[in-house]
Amino acid sequence: MSRQQVTVQLGDRSYPVIVGAGVRVELNSVLPATARRAVIVTQQSIPIQVATDIPSTTVVIGEGEQNKTLSTIEHVVRAFAAAGLNRNDVVIGVGGGLVTDVAGYAAASWHRGTPVVHVSTSLVGMVDAAIGGKTGVNLPEGKNLVGAFWQPHAVLCDTDALATLPERELRCGYGEMAKYHFLTGDDLLAMDRTSRIARCVQIKADIVASDEREGGLRAVLNYGHTLGHALEISTGFEIAHGEAVAVGMIFAAHLAHVLGRIDDERVAYHQQVVAGAYGLSTALPRDCRADDLLALMQADKKALHGLTFVLDGANGVELVADVSTAAVTQALSRMEVR
Ligand SMILES: NC(=O)c1ccc[n+]([C@@H]2O[C@H](COP(=O)([O-])OP(=O)(O)OC[C@H]3O[C@@H](n4cnc5c(N)ncnc54)[C@H](O)[C@@H]3O)[C@@H](O)[C@H]2O)c1
């Protein structure tokens, strides 16, 4: 099927996510009826141009995490001021996760909340960042430390955009996509690309609908992220986020096995999805030392009750606290090294 639609069910803040080739042409039909003007937030290398029936101006932001800052927010909201944008109008984010996080946060702050529509152009954006309403920017002290929950009015995931996405960015998307294979029993491997993206959106939408502000269940979206974050930090961000999450999921499978939560077959299924289906590396980088990784995982923000991980098991993927360092060390020792 070439076009699919998912609804994020949040009462009177529910919104559609439309997935498919060329769906950017539906933009005008999803803009708020009250909007008289729009400001489009995008980046230089985004290949997608959008056209609006209402007057619009465009503000271009820089690329890379070093541009995901409060000064970029100031640049963007001053463009809103110059355009005379008011809270009945609309902000349109056209880009990957960085653009939609920035556009979303600027919209959340502008006149204390102005509608935002996302046109997501990266795989990470489509299956994750553009949906769910987490917005924000980085500080020198850490990633995504300043932000707001601000749900979009609608999201368009135009799969045509993926044709120009650089290989490594695609790989990062696969890392996030792979995680959804373990969150439900669905056979995502049997689906074509549009259906698979739409199914990932549906899984995330269902989780967001039941736990909008990450009180509990939403934490399962961090599957593979505990070791993933530690790997990003210990390699000085040489390993990209999605690549690190891929390795993190294999570690999580070994850890769940060490704890008797899953069997050999389920560990092998993790390998089959992450390495087999998505071609991602599942080995630990050679120069990452186990005790450094352990210390970083102990400092993880989930670790309120000792070492805490999102782990697979008989009840599906769930948060598991107070995991012993011995189990973590044993699971790390089962990992391949490259
Ligand atoms: N809000 C959330 O829930 C959430 C979830 C996951 C990630 N994120 C955030 O998303 C960001 C990562 O998103 P990302 O992986 O999309 O990275 P990104 O937005 O930085 O995009 C990566 C690069 O690809 C380019 N690009 C994007 N789409 C393109 C296309 N179609 N063709 C060619 N180039 C294209 C971008 O300009 C950029 O240079 C991080 O800042 C992360 O914190 C947020």
Overview of the structural elements:
By secondary structure, this protein is an alpha/beta fold. It has two domains: 3-167, Rossmann fold (3-Layer(aba) Sandwich); 223-333, Dehydroquinate synthase-like - alpha domain (Dehydroquinate synthase-like, alpha domain), CATH 1.20.1090.10. It contains eleven helices and eleven strands. The chain has helices spanning 27-30, 70-83, 97-109, 123-129, 167-183, 193-210, 225-234, 241-258, 264-277, 290-298, 325-333, and strands at residues 3-8, 15-20, 38-43, 56-61, 90-95, 116-120, 134-139, 142-149, 154-158, 307-311, 318-323. The strands form three sheets. Strands 1-2-9-6-5-3-4 form a seven-stranded mixed beta sheet. Strand 10 (307-311) and strand 11 (318-323) form a beta hairpin. Helix 7 (225-234) packs across helix 10. It starts with a strand and ends in a 5-residue tail after the last helix. The mean pLDDT is 95. Bound molecules: nicotinamide-adenine-dinucleotide. Nicotinamide-adenine-dinucleotide is lined by residues 43, 45-47, 63, 65, 68, 95-99, 101, 121-122, 124-125, 128-129, 132, 134, 144, 161, 164-165, 169, 172.
